[in-house]
Amino acid sequence: MPSDAPATWLDAGSRTSVAVRGPDAARFIDGFTTAAVGPLEVGFGTEGFFADAKGWVLALAAILRTEDGVWIDAFPGGAVSLAEHLERYHIRERLEIADETAARTNIVVTGAAARAALEAIGGVDMPRETWRHVRGTIGGVSVAVVAVPWAGPGGCLLQVAIADRPRLVAALEAAGVSAAGAETLDRLRIEQGWPAPADIAAKTLPQELDRDATAISFTKGCYLGQETVARLDALGHANRRLVGLVAAGAIEPGATVCAAGAACGVITSACVSSRAGGWLGLAILPVKACGQDVALDAGGVPVQVIDLPLAESDAAPAPPTQRGGEVVFTARRFRVVRIAEPAVARDREVVEHPGSVVVLPLVDRDQVCLVEVVRVAVGATLLELPAGTLDRVETLADAAARELAEETGYRAGRLKSLGALWMSPGILHERMHLFVAEDLVPGPQALEPGEQIRTRVVPMAEAVAMCLDGRIEDAKTVAALLLWAARGRDQACGTVAGA
Question: Does domain 356-492 match CATH 3.90.79.10?
Answer without folding.
Answer: yes
